[in-house]
Amino acid sequence: MTVLSPTVRRLGLAFAALGVAFLGALLVIAGNPVGWALIAVGLPLSGALALAGDALGRGFGPTLAQRARALAAQTAPWMWFVALYAALKIPVPLWPQGFPVLGLASTAALFVAALLFVWERENAAKAGIMALVAFALGLAAEVAGSRTGIPFGDYTYAGAPAPTVLGVPLIVPLGWFALTLTATCLSGGRPWLAGLLMTLWDVGLEPLMTAQGYWRWTDPLGVWAGAPVENFVGWWGVGTLIAWIFTGLAPRLFGLRTLEWAWALPWFARAFPMGGGPALSLLPRAAVARADFRVVYAIEAFFLPGGLVLVGRFAEAAVTLAAMLAGLLFARRVTRRDA
Fold first, then answer.
1. Distances (CA, A) of 81 to 26, 77, 86, 185
2. Residues 109 and 84 sit within 8 Å (Cβ to Cβ)
3. Contact assessment for residue 232 and residue 199, using Cβ atoms and an 8 Å cutoff
4. Interacting residues of 122 by C-beta distance below 8 A, sequence separation 6+
5. Which of 6, 13, 118, 233 has the most crowded Cβ, counting Cβ within 10 A?
6. Where are the domains of the chain?
């Protein structure tokens, strides 16, 4: 009989508690006030179980208190912004019309988290350059795609919520940096795999973002939420390109042992010291080095299908959950055996 690891038990129980809170949100939307009680119980219970769900029983309270103190001491600045990014998703079911505001704020928090993560592990120069490259390439691809149909197919941003940059909602290029960073971390620095993970992510983004009016497909060859096969090939290509640049700029950030293909920084950035990023943690940097930005992908594997359920896209939610879980399992297998 296989015994689940403590980490798996904690995460499983935490997600179950989040499911209780999610059910509460559905009840609130349906006008049932009992939903508020489920939310009030589910959210804090999820956090407690994530910390000490493997110590249920008499030792639960002391274990929870001990790990909470350790968590506060070990939490680096980028982690707080990841937490903010997740927290900003929670009110969406209770304030559906606020999705544009909450979505932009959540994505902006994730962008800052990604910036601080690279700054902490590498330096400010690499963080800024990687953010700029991803933002610029993502924006360029979206501008070209919405105006020419290349590389994603025929779609339009007409009617998309403000603010926009060159007609593209700001949330989109902001997302290209953070989403590609977490996919590249999860892929162990393999650009092709990072591109594939981005494509699986887009399986859920397409039905959700079209439902929210961020873009509208006009392609006659649409196969999924109006998007053609070309769209997913384009996502893989753009994601792979950005991930390839990321691994060239910061191979050690993604666990690559061979640095022979690493690119030199521009002359104006070479004086920046390695590390030296914001450090609000009470513990030495080595004590928090195990935490990784790949956790964002797992968070999205919960919230993205959940968002689709809330807008009534149940089949798309199931497909998205299956696709992202398959991506997580495949990445784990590849990074273990294809070293």
1. 26, 7, 9, 17
2. yes
3. yes
4. 250, 252, 253, 274, 275
5. 118
6. 1-74, 76-337
